[in-house]
Amino acid sequence: MTPIRLAARRPVLRCLNAPAPRPQFRARNLNQQSKPGRAHLSDLDYVSVHRAEAMERARLIRRRNWLALGAALSMMAPIFLVRLWDLPSPDEQQQKENQENQEKQQKERGGVIDLITPKPTSCDSPRAAADEFQGKKVVIAPGDKVIAAPVDADHPVASDADSIELVETGTSYVPYFPKTITLPVPTGPEAVESQAEYQLLGLGIRKVSFLRVQVYVVGLYIRSSDLHTLQNHLINTVNPSASALIPGEKEDLRKALLDPERSTQIWDSILARKGPEAVDMAFRVVPTRGTDFGHLRDGWMRGIASRTDEVRKRQADLLRQQATENKQIALPKPVEEGEFGDESFGLAMKEFKALFQGRGKAPKGSVLVLTRGRDGELGALYQPLVNTNKGEKMGETIKLGSVKDERVSKLVWQLYLSGQNVSSEDARKNIVNGCIEITERPVGTVEGRVL
After folding, report:
1. φ and ψ of 54, to 5 deg
2. How far apart, in whole angstroms, are the C-alpha atoms of residue 349 and residue 378?
C-alpha cells in the first residue's frame, strides 16, 4: 500500500472527544428471525455480554459465600454443643443403667401384688422436678411446702428436725435451694467456732453471653439473729421514725434498691456497719453445669476490677469539679490516691485470688459459700458432690480460706446488690423482694419465712 493511500485511510489528527465504540450485542434467541417491516430488534431482545457475565459471576460468588458460611456453622455447632452440654461420666451411666434395671425388676415382681392390693393414689403435687436433694427424698408437705425428708420417713412435715424446707430456683439443673442453712461462725472473746442458722433472703440465676447460658444459681442468706438488724437499717433508709413501712414507703424503698446510685449508697451504709450493728451474710453459689474454680474466680475478678474503675472515675470527676469551682488547675499526681489505690488492697486481692488457685473443677451441684462476718472478713467454704454406689452425696465441707480486708467482701457483695450492671438481675430483684417483705412487720418481729 502506497503512503498516499495509507494517509488517506488513517487521518493524522483524530478527534479526542470521539464517542467510544459501541459494545457488541448478542441476540437472546439466535433462531429468531426478524419480521418483515421491522428495521431492527427491540433493546429488550439484546443483553450486554459483559454485563451478563458480571451478573452471573456475582451470583456464583454469593452462592459460594453462603455455602462456605453454612459449612463453617455446621462445623462450629458441634463444638459449642460439646463445650456447653455436660456428658454423663461412665460411672453415672452405669448407675443409671443399674437403677433402670432395678426399677424394671421391681415392676415385674410387684405386678401381681399390685393387682391384688393396689397402691393408694398419690396426691403429691407434680411440681417436684427432682426426686432427691442431698441424699433425701423431695416431697410436698402439708401447707404446700416442698421439703427434703429422710427416705424412711412415712409422713414428713416441714417442722421435723431431719427435714429441710426447699425453695424452687426456676431451673431444672439446680431445682431447689434450702430455705435455711447452718454455717460455722466465731463466738465469744476467744472466737470459739459454733454453728449459726442463716435464712434465705433471695436467689437468682447467673447468665452470660447473648445466648443467656446459665452458669450458677446464687442466693443471699442472712443470719437469723441479724434479720432484725437488717430490717432496722432498711426501714431507717426511708423513715427513721417508723417501726414498719406502709405501702407507699415500701414502694419508695423498692425503687431506691433498684436504682444504680441510691442502691450503692444504701448497701455501702449497711456494709460499713461494725460490731452489734453489722449484719452477717453469706452467698451460696451452686453451678448449673460443670465448671472450675478458675472460671468463677475470673468472673469475680473482672467484676471487682470494673467496680474499682467506676470508683476511680467518680473520684477523678469529683476532683476536677472541685478544682473548677475553686478556679484551680488539677494536675495529675504521681501516685493514685483513693479507696482502692493503696498497696494493702492489692495484697488483699492476691489473697482473694489465692483462695481458688489450684482447686480444680467445680462439678454441677457442688456448693460454694462466701461469708461476710461482722468485721467484714470474707470467708470461703466448699462442699463437693461425691458419687457413691447409692447415688450422689454431698461431701464434707472444706474451708478454702479467708480475706480480712473488708473492701474485698464489700466489692463482691456489690456485684450482686447494687450498681448499674449486676452479676444477676434476677437475684437482685428477688433479694429486693425479700427486703421489702421483712420491712412489712415491726422491728424485731420478722418471721422465719422470708422468701
Report:
1. -65, -40
2. 11
* Contact yes or no for 145/158 (Cβ under 8 A): yes
Starting at the earlier edge strand, list the strands of the sheet with 192-208. Answer: 180-187, 192-208, 213-223, 281-287, 367-372, 378-383, 398-403
Whether the predicted model's global pTM rises above the 0.70 cut: no
Among residues 384, 379, 361, which one has the least CA distance to residue 369? 379
φ/ψ of 443, rounded to 5, equals: -60, 130
pLDDT digits (tens, 9 = 90+) for 147-203: 888 877 777 777 777 788 888 888 888 888 999 999 988 876 666 778 889 999 999
Q: Helix 406-417 crosses helix 425-438 at what angle (to 10 degrees)? A: 100
Q: How many CB atoms lie within 10 A of CB 178?
A: 21
Could you tell me if 337 and 149 are in contact, meaning their C-beta atoms sit under 8 angstroms apart?
A: no
Query: What's the angle, vertex CA 367, arms to CA 363 and CA 369, rounded to 5?
Result: 140
Residue with cell 453489722: 278
The residue with cell 456428658 is 87
* R_g of the chain computed on alpha carbons: 36
pLDDT greater at residue 205 or residue 81: 205
Is 440 within 8 Å of 210 (Cβ atoms)? Answer: no
What are the phi and psi torsion angles at 46 (to 5°)?
Answer: -120, 150
| Residue ranges covered by each domain of the chain | 123-168, 169-331+338-438
Fold held by 169-331+338-438: Chalcone isomerase (3.50.70)
Question: Which pLDDT tens digit goes with each residue over 310-331?
Answer: 777 777 776 677 677 776 655 5
Which of 157, 150, 111, 113 shows the shortest CA–CA distance to 132? 150
Beta-ladder partners of 193: 186
Q: Which residue type sits at 134?
A: Q
What does the alpha-carbon distance between residue 414 and residue 310 come to, in Å, rounded to a whole number?
A: 12
Predicted confidence at residue 195, as pLDDT, reads: 87
